[in-house]
Write a structure and sequence with these properties.
Strand content of chain B: under 5%
Largest sheet of chain A: 5 strands, mixed
Strand order of the largest sheet of chain A: 1-5-4-3-2
Number of helices of chain B: 7
Shape of chain B: globular
Helix content of chain B: over 70%
Order of helices and strands of chain B: HHHHHHH
Radius of gyration of chain A: 22 Å
Largest interface: A-B, 20 and 26 residues
Oligomer: heterodimer
Distance between the termini of chain B: 43 Å
Radius of gyration of chain B: 19 Å
Largest sheet of chain B: none
Strand content of chain A: 25-35%
Shape of chain A: elongated
Structural class of chain B: mainly alpha
Number of strands of chain A: 5
Structural class of chain A: alpha+beta
Distance between the termini of chain A: 69 Å
Chain lengths: ~160, ~160
């Protein structure tokens, strides 16, 4: 084979590989199903709290069949959006500082320092998520308001 | 007469096989070059894995920096195969990457696309190796004798 023939073959090969790769590539939504549970929850927390887009976070990472066990909401995905949007996101709070994340199979536990409103007592929060096919399908939480004065020599965080 | 016919048939078979190997070599080289370069210049989004396990494996490879070295190997192999230089060496260098790609697709992803990808990449690597099998004959000796400096001397043109 001459150099020119080799060059033409290489260009054709590269074009074919690019065509096959791009035409068979899955969509982001299809790849979402393969994201590990821990990463799904971390992406949700980041989008909701750090990027301050709670509605987008819920719609992107919570399943339409999502069930919440929080007694202060109706338990649907829309009720979570309503609850989060009732908070004032233009201020420094709501704020979440994640301290621990523990994942086991489909379950992810997030232990975080939560502040809902500026001036409010912070909360030691534990959220438990169940993830299926890359989406959060269930949520439980345990919230412990942090007292101003603690009897304990060790801090809560 | 019959030996001439047999010889013609063998020549035609040899020429056909040569072209098949060259086509596969071009496709395989392009595959490695495109996917290797994509890590550094991004023609398309790096596929994150089509199963939770492969997603975690690829994520770990990226986080540890090993993925970049895999991609360097892919680029070098791709260039050598397309330039038709050091081809037997490139085929051997490609084999560990081929096995990992095949394992991810066949054992972890386990979907139709993964089945096709895993089968094609192994078949292509093996076919190329068969095409250059004469280059590997020295490696296939049952008893390779004792080690020595013969190899280094022969590289310098010595006996």
């Amino acid at each position: 084979m001459s150099v020119l023939q080799r060059l033409i073959a290489a260009v054709a090969g590269v074009a074919l590989v690019l065509f096959v790769t791009i035409s068979t590539m899955r969509t982001d939504a299809q790849y979402q199903a393969f994201v590990p549970a821990r990463e799904v929850v971390q992406r949700f927390m980041t989008l909701a709290f750090e990027e301050r887009r709670p509605r987008d976070a819920v719609l992107k990472y919570m399943s339409p069949q999502f069930v919440d066990h929080d007694p202060y909401v109706a338990g649907t995905r829309e009720s979570v959006i309503s609850r989060l949007e009732s908070l004032d996101w233009t201020t420094a709070a709501p704020r979440s500082e994640v301290r621990h994340v523990i994942a086991e199979g489909d379950y992810v536990v997030v232990h975080h320092y939560l502040t809902r409103k500026p001036g409010d007592s912070p909360i030691a929060a534990v959220d438990l998520f169940r993830v299926k096919n890359g989406l959060i399908v269930e949520h439980w939480d345990v919230l412990q308001p942090m007292p101003e004065h603690s009897a304990n020599a060790h801090p809560m965080f | 007469m019959s030996s001439v016919l047999l010889s013609d048939t063998a020549d035609r078979g040899d020429a056909t096989f040569r072209w098949i190997v060259l086509v596969v070599q071009t496709f395989f080289g392009s595959w490695f070059l495109v996917h290797g370069l994509n890590y550094f210049v991004t023609f398309f989004r790096q596929p994150p894995g089509a199963s939770v396990l492969s997603h975690e494996l690829i994520g770990a490879l990226i986080a540890t920096g090993l993925f970049a070295w895999v991609k360097v190997v892919e680029v070098v192999v791709g260039i050598l195969l397309l330039a038709h230089r050091f081809v037997p060496l490139a085929i051997v260098a490609a084999l560990p990457v081929t096995l990992v790609i095949a394992y991810v697709n066949l054992a972890l992803n386990k979907d139709l696309f993964g089945l096709i990808t895993g089968t094609v990449i192994i078949a292509a690597n093996v076919l190329m190796a068969v095409g250059y099998l004469d280059s590997y004959r020295a490696m296939m000796r049952f008893d390779a004798g004792l080690p020595g400096l013969r190899g280094l001397r022969s590289l310098r043109g010595g006996a």
